[in-house]
Amino acid sequence: MINIDSLMRTAPVIPVLVVEDPARARPIAQALVARGYPVLEVTLRTPAALEVIAEMARVEGAIVGAGTVLNERDLDASLAAGGRFVVSPGLTESLARAAIDRRVPFLPGVATAGDIMRGLDLGLDRFKFFPAVAAGGLPALKALSAPFHQCRFCPTGGISEATAPDWLALEAVLCVGGSWVAAGL
């Protein structure tokens, strides 16, 4: 099983996908993998999300995970559908412990020093900085990464193709999440 650090280093951009129609899942995954985006985050924001994960997981070269994982029930359903990692918009102890117990790569969302400290207490040091732009943008992440130098981040939320290089230039940033990558697919 891939660990979260390796996953974050696989590609500089993780497409964040909201897919309504499972019939579109494989073509979208195939196109993204062909363009050099093998790590795919399918958000659990649609009734079809678990079926989409299952379809995308069948695409050679795709590393498919679930986003918007809110609790242990979502975690288990995502793994059963074929998800290989999970991303959450926040950090709760119960979800973190469930992911750790199942040894699933887990990227919890953080926006404050307290969030990061709770994650460190749980043995985590890789985080989704969310919502990146609304939580203070580059200046906020620069400030947070100083005292938490051991942590690495995947900023998501308001990142665009134009701003991604600025985020990726930060030493603490391993990758960014963005929906622009799948526009038009």
Key phrases:
185 residues, alpha/beta, TIM Barrel, 4-stranded parallel beta sheet, 8 helices, 8 strands, 18% strand, globular
- Morphology: globular
Characterize the biggest β-sheet.
Answer: 4 strands, parallel
- What's the total helix number? 8
Task: State the CATH topology.
Answer: TIM Barrel
As a percent range, the share of helical residues equals 25-40%
- Cα-to-Cα separation, first versus last residue: 29 Å
Count of domains? 1
Q: Structural class, please?
A: alpha/beta
User: How would you write the strand order of the largest sheet?
Assistant: 3-2-1-8
Low-confidence stretches: none
- The CATH class name reads Alpha Beta
Average of pLDDT: 97
Tell me what the CATH architecture is: Alpha-Beta Barrel
Radius of gyration: 15 Å
CATH superfamily membership:
Aldolase class I
Q: What is the element string, with H for helices and E for strands?
A: HEHEHEHEHEHEHEHE
